[in-house]
Amino acid sequence: MVRDPSRRFLWLVLYVSSCFNPDAVDPAVSESFGGTSPTDAGPTEETETSSGGRTSIDAGPSSSDGTESGLPTAEASTRASESEGSATEGPDLPPLLACVETRVSAGAEIVGSTLDAPDDFTLTCGAGTGNDLAYEWIVPRTDYYRLTTEGSSLDSVLGVLDADCATELSCSNNVGNGLQSEIVRRFEGDDRVVLVVDGNLGDRGDFAFQIDAVVCPELDLTGQPLPAELSTIGGVNEREGRCGGAGNPERTVRWLAPTAGLYRFSVESDAFDPAIHLETGAQCGGTLVGCGTGNGSYPAEVTRYLEANEPVSLTIDSTNGEGTFSLDIAASADACPSQSDELGGPQTLEANTSSHILSASCSPTGSTGFGGPGPFVDDSYPLNIDLCPTCACVYSITSDAPLTVYVLRGTHCEGEEVECVPSTGSGSEYEAEIRFSPADNGDYVLVVESRNLDFSVNYDLLVQCVA
Ligand SMILES: [Ca+2]
Ligand SMILES: [Ca+2]
Ligand SMILES: [Ca+2]
User: Fold this and answer.
1) CA distances from 257 to 281, 307, 356 (A)
2) 3-state DSSP call for residue 60?
3) Which residues contact 83 (CB under 8 A, 6 or more apart)?
4) Beta-sheet strands, E only, within 287-388
5) How many whole angstroms from 155 Cα to the centroid of ligand 1?
6) Residue 295: its pLDDT value, please?
7) Ligand 1 centre and the CA of 132: distance in Å?
8) What ligand has the least distance to the C-alpha of 240?
9) Mean pLDDT, 10 residues at a time, the chain of 467 residues
10) In the chain, at which end, N or C, are there fewer CB atoms within 10 A of the end residue's CB?
């Protein structure tokens, strides 16, 4: 496991960017929420990573044509020595760890080749025997950082090890549909870690590797007093999503739940109608879990079950203008789903006594009734879809008043909203349909939400399947 420090590494080329530009965000990538991102497709093999890609790194002129690894040794060494600035070398820094070739810094772009490197490390999320290279990184300050091999040509595996050169802290093989690796995690200032670039299944070749501080979300509210009074004035407009936000500035915040449970994110403003989007992960661009819109009558809300210390990123956007707002994140003692059995037989959402627990992306959280503003009530049910390969089913919720039906992935309201359908109809006959195919097999929570504060809604489920 421990690398022999005497081994020569010939082909490393190290660049240190002249300055780290945190604003260098690819707008085409940053403006999409998880719901439309290709990186949402299915689970990835990485651990402790977010599935989204925020920043495109410039792999430099050398990595795209693959000629850098063919540089004469002398040239490679010269360029490496040019990079040895005060960030990575200096009298106050300790001697290099025994298992690494050199030291790197945040903002540095490293390109190189594992072609003639040794195979000293085996990372848990990779397979086989690939040549690898190891770097030491002394964390400049406590923050979340993104480590990526985006732009590499080999099938990379990326690992973070402790300074003992052996204890693996994070590992990423593939993120999204690609073969490259990404790790997003919090590092403590002055920590010394070993970063390993390995080849999966024996793959060897050119790689690019970069470390950047995560700049979206802008603010981490973990442990800060809530509600938080904030403003979108002066914010950038780089994001929009299913619930809106185009053309208006937004604010982004990270938050980690102190304990596992159901949490409600709510935003209210007198200055604008908020649109909030909740994504998984410590950086913007993760899977869109849910979104909500608010108006003068009721705040925008998203409520989900979070594991303890599970980072989420919230974008507070606007559908009309900018200004100050109040963000609250409150633990809920409600059970979710609210019902223990699957929906079957006639039910009633009582206008005054049913609970408001969840909220939909495709209809407002609440409105103003006879007694003033308030949230809509909802019932939620476990739902297991287990269809044969040629089967398909239509779930129809029929009702005597308008309602919204939506479906969350998972068993306890932890997952993303995968479908949201407002009922259509008139008089006392309304209907909302959701279709399931074998590709949808899995566990869900089915939510039925009233869209009237003052009247109860009677509803029932009709399931029609074809084989
Ligand atoms: Ca290896
Ligand atoms: Ca890979
Ligand atoms: Ca926006």
Assistant:
1) 12, 7, 21
2) helix
3) 14, 15, 16, 108
4) 288-293, 300-306, 311-318, 324-332, 347-349, 366-369, 372-375, 378-385
5) 12
6) 81
7) 5
8) 3
9) 40 36 34 34 37 29 30 28 41 88 89 94 96 96 96 97 97 94 96 97 96 97 97 96 97 98 97 97 97 89 97 97 97 97 96 93 90 92 97 97 97 98 97 97 98 94 94
10) C
Domain with CATH 2.60.120.380 in the chain: 13-213, 216-333
* Ligand with an atom nearest the CA of residue 132: 1
The domain made up of 13-213 is a member of CATH 2.60.120.380 = yes
Question: Would you state the pLDDT for residue 91?
Answer: 64
**Ligand number with the minimum distance to the CA of 119:** 1
Cis, peptide link before residue 274, omega less than 30° from 0? no
pLDDT at position 33 is 36
Residues with CB under 5 A from ligand 2 (ion): 155, 173-174, 179, 200
**Residue 412 one-letter amino acid:** H
- Say how many Å lie between the CA of residue 238 and the centre of ligand 3: 6
CA of 50 to the centre of ligand 1 (A): 24
User: Which of the four CATH numbers 2.60.120.380, 3.30.360.10, 3.20.20.140, 2.60.40.10 does domain 216-333 have?
Assistant: 2.60.120.380
Task: Identify which ligand lies nearest to the alpha carbon of 126.
Answer: 2
